[in-house]
Every structure is written in C-alpha cells, then in structure tokens.
Amino acid sequence: MDPELEAFIALFPPATLDDPVTERANFAKLARSVPKPDTSAMTVEDRLVPGEPGVPVRIYRPYEARGAIVWLHGGGWVMGDLETEHPWAARLAEASGAVVISVEYRLAPENPFPAASDDVYAVLNWAADHAAELGVSPDRIAIGGHSAGGGLAAATALRARDEGGPRICFQLLNQPGLDDRQETWSAREFTGTPWMNREKVTAMWRHYLDGRPAPSPYAAPARATDLSGLPPAYMATAELCPNRDEDIEYAVRLLRSGVSVELHQWPGTFHGSQAILSAEVSRRQIEELGDVLRRAVAF
C-alpha cells in the first residue's frame, strides 16, 4: 500500500452498513473534514428536477463550460447526498471546466432499486432537455460517478441505449460497483481491505436490491450480455478494492464490444482513497478525472 495512504487507515470510523442512519452521520462527518473546494470560478445552484418525487441536484457551472456531466456520489447506495459530495463535485468542475450536475438520488434500504436508477434517469433527461439553459450542447453530456454512483452511471448508459434515451457522450467510472454476484477473485479475497471489503459490499448490495439478486443489468451492469453501442468510457480501479476485478473485466468486455475505453489501475490504493488529498497519488487521481472529462466533452 502507498505509505501516504496507509497512515490514514486508523482514522477511519467503522463502516459496516448494519445501521444506515449511524453510517450516514459518520459519512457526513468524514466529508466535513475534507478541505473546502474553491468555487470562485463557478456558480453553484441547487435545483429540484421535476419527477415523482422531484430529484434534488446541485449544479456547478464554470464560467467557460465545455460540456456537462451528470455526476453520482458514492456511499454504497445507502450513504451520501449533495453535501457529502460537494468537495468532489466542485473539484471535478474546477479541474474539467465542465458543468457538473450532482444528483441526490434516493437511498436504500428505504428506497431500494429501482428508485435511485429512476432518479438518475430523470436527471439525465432533464439535463438533455435543458442543455441550452446549462450553456452546453446536448451532445456533450457525459455521465459518471464513484463507487455506487459509478455503478448507477454504467446502468444509466445501458438504459439510455436500450430505451432510445438521451445521447451520452462519455462514461466516467471511478471504482464502480457493477456486480452483485461477488464472484471475482478480488471480491472473494479482499475481506480485510480498508474502507471497503467483502462484508461491506455484501451489505450494500443487500440494501440496494432488497435482499434479492439483481433483476436486470440496470441494477448490476455486469449482468448485461450486450455492451455494444455504449458511450466511450474511462475506468479507474484501486488495487486493494473488492470491485477491482469486476471493473477490469467490464472494461475489457466494453473493448471487445467495440467501445473505446481508457483503463487505469492505480497501484497501492484502496477504495475511496482518492479522498485523502494529502497523498500524492490521490491528487493525481483527482486531476486525472478532471483531465479525462475535459477531453471527453471538449469536442
């Protein structure tokens, strides 16, 4: 493990997802400890996207936007909101020059699949319909997220393809949760890795899927049998993450289906460790996400 990251492990609170209410409070406390982002070069606005129910979003609009991304927070489908994602959504907007639409989708276990998926799809359609208001071209809208949010992003790309929804120009997938079956080597073997391990992954899928196997690829994208016709993708994986192998396998399957993919396996890292901004490797990860998104929406 990268020594700069290893020094922080003892500071993490336990996160088993057995008590979602307590875990959400701990997650929010962690987010408040992150240095505040610089939002001086952008406007930040909270909106409610119409729907049943309405979906809260926070829009980060750099003064010279180059495109947009519907951005989905992590937290195992159980934790996270606009406030916990604020440090990362703002940094992504700053680093990429893209309009970042951060989504507060409904959380499990109170709202299991397909609640979050439906919320994200509603926001994607809203963004496409309001591209002119956002100051971007409707064909320059990407989708992306971290962890559970990355899984939602991949699932939304599948749904948009299948249902003839808005054209997504790019997928920005950072350590996404893609496969509820947990059959890969990393999913089986990483039982004691920091922050995310097999037990926690099992719990998050149980909450999200209401204790049942994924009913469709829109719940667990790795179950999709056809990955052709999907948007180009960037896939980032962490070496010591249970999701590592399912993410790499998904990237390879995209490639074999004719989808252009950039794959970066970050050595010495663990799930979510890019949040430790004092570590050089973490800063590199954040900068690369911004660079990749900037290139993806610039043309």
UniProtKB/TrEMBL annotation:
Coiled-coil blocks: none
Annotated Alpha/beta hydrolase fold-3 domain residues: 69-273
Record flagged with keyword Oxidoreductase: no
InterPro entries in the cross-refs: AB_hydrolase_3 (IPR013094), AB_hydrolase_fold (IPR029058), GDXG_lipolytic_enzyme (IPR050300)
Signal peptide positions on this chain: none
Pfam family, one: Abhydrolase_3
Origin: domain of life: Bacteria
A GO molecular-function annotation: hydrolase activity
ATP-binding in keyword set: no
Keywords, comma-separated and alphabetical: Hydrolase
Name of the protein described by the UniProt record: Esterase
Source species of the chain: Amycolatopsis azurea DSM 43854
